[in-house]
Structures
1.
Amino acid sequence: MKTYDDVYKTAGAFSWNELTTGNPDAAATFYGQLFDWRFEKMDMGMPYHVVKTAEGTAVAGIMGKPPGAETMPSAWGSYVTVTDADAAAKRCVELGGKVLNEPMDVPTVGRFAVLQDPQGAVFCVMAYSG
């Protein structure tokens, strides 16, 4: 049986979910009480709450809205694992989609991009390091 670590590094698999919200601390309190989640607070250039199951498996993240995006609605976003974030962004455009956030590095994690399909759905791709 595959472990969570095996699955999230599988190209084409949904691997991470992330909430962007105006009040990450309040969101962590709400979801922690609702789902019995635990949190590890990290500094990723801004406070970031790593969501962990009661067993300790990291499954998601909660972060504040980035500067200049304060009016965007709070929303969950999904990541799909890819082997190359730059190639996935290029292919998305070739297929009629858009690149909303150019590929960029997340230290110790990998390289990601925010994309939009031709129907308007937004998703992220992540090429994990190591």
Note: The longest helix spans residues 24-35.
2.
Amino acid sequence: EELILRGDLYRIDDPTDGNFCSEAIVSKDRSRAVLVCYRRMGGVNNEIKRVRMEGLAPGRRYRVPELGLTLTGATLMHVGIVPDYTKGDFATAKYHFEAID
């Protein structure tokens, strides 16, 4: 897909720094993005990890279908989202962002 081949890759959380890893790919015109989050090991009282996007246009509004929300780029980059990991080890969560003009 065009986004994967030509988009800008952002490593948000480094996998060597802890239990979480997050990466985002953002289109050159900042109209679309995909965020993939990983959690290695689950536990009884799992740590809550907030992921702040990178590379979005702060003034644009983005629809996030997986959350059923529309948020500004500034909100996604400064406040972020809390990924909904499934139970167990090696959990992933994926989110799509589409700019609405």
Note: The helical segments are 2-6, 73-78.
